[in-house]
Amino acid sequence: MATEKDPESSLKLKLRRVIFGTDTPAGRYFDISLMVCIVMSVLLVFLDTVASVHERYGDMIVIMEWGFTFIFTIEYILRLYCSAKPLSYARSFYGVVDLLSVLPTYLALFFPGASFTMVIRILRLFRIFRVLKLLRYLSEGNLLLRAMMQSSRKVFIFFFSVSLIVVVLSAVMYVVEGPNNGFTSIPKSIYWTIVTITTVGYGDITPGTPLGQAIAAFTMLLGYSIIAIPTGILTAEISQEIGRTRDLRRCSNCLKVGHENNALYCDHCGSELESEL
């Protein structure tokens, strides 16, 4: 019985090395080919929204789109087939992204009528999720994601505090300025405060009283600190995360540290690193 299962197990193992592994030549070629397909398919989505391009090359774009959909469908099926835990993969972030990258094209088949044009357009735009497939190949992206998760509580508390400040400033501006200057309600004032505090400043609502202008100036200055503080929090977490993921071994040739984890050679001079005890 064990020998009967060997061919299938061997095939799964080979596919897993190619699809999930990046340390083999075949795996690298697979990743590069898939990245090219992802970028080209996303470019097709962009071009399809240009009226002149859609009118002239619409049929060709549809054919190419189905070609990419077929490729990504095969990829998704193969990932499910050779995955050690298919259900875990299907529920994972990348599994959902892989499914969303092919689903819209198939769903569009069920809305053939002209009255469903908007539905089809929305489904087609969902193909943009394919760009998220590129995250699989960005190790730095994982580092950034870990840093964001580590700092999420601090950032949440900060933005909660900012929300309270926005509400208070909005209520004050509503009382100070009133409907005559465009502050017709507190929600409208909240809109103005957010636009001002983010230093966007559309100019559709402007304070007319000296006190209101003084509060507006304070809000603008406050905006700079609001941008700087979460940036500082995230930068500190990224720095700590880099420190945790760096190899602390010292190169015997150039005496430098900070190599990639599990590196065999020095990042700076190329000398062989001593193996960890």
How would you characterize this protein structure?
- This protein is mostly helical and 277 residues long.
- Helices cover 68% and strands 0% of the residues.
- The protein has helices at 2-19, 25-48, 51-82, 86-91, 93-100, 103-107, 117-125, 139-177, 186-197, 210-245.
- It is flat.
- The mean pLDDT is 78.
- Residues 28-241 form the Ion transport domain.
- Its main location: membrane.
- It is a multi-pass membrane protein.
- InterPro entries: Ion_trans_dom (IPR005821), VG_K_chnl (IPR028325), Volt_channel_dom_sf (IPR027359).
Concise summary:
The protein has 277 residues and is mainly alpha-helical. The protein contains ten helices and no strands.
Give the topology, please.
Elements (H helix, E strand, L loop, with lengths): L1 H18 L5 H24 L2 H32 L3 H6 L1 H8 L2 H5 L9 H9 L13 H39 L8 H12 L12 H36 L32
Helix pairs in contact: 1-3, 2-3, 8-9, 8-10
Q: What's the alpha carbon Rg, rounded to whole Å?
A: 27 Å
Secondary-structure arrangement, i.e. CATH architecture of the largest domain: Up-down Bundle
Put simply, the count of helices is: 10
> What structural class do you assign from the helix and strand content?
mainly alpha
Percent of residues in helices comes to 55-70%
Ends: how far apart? 42 Å
Would you list the SSEs in sequence order as H and E?
HHHHHHHHHH
CATH fold category name of the largest domain: Four Helix Bundle (Hemerythrin (Met), subunit A)
Pfam families: Ion_trans (PF00520)
Membrane topology: Multi-pass membrane protein
Keywords: Ion channel, Ion transport, Membrane, Potassium, Potassium channel, Potassium transport, Transmembrane, Transmembrane helix, Transport, Voltage-gated channel
Transmembrane segments: 32-51, 63-81, 101-123, 155-176, 214-236
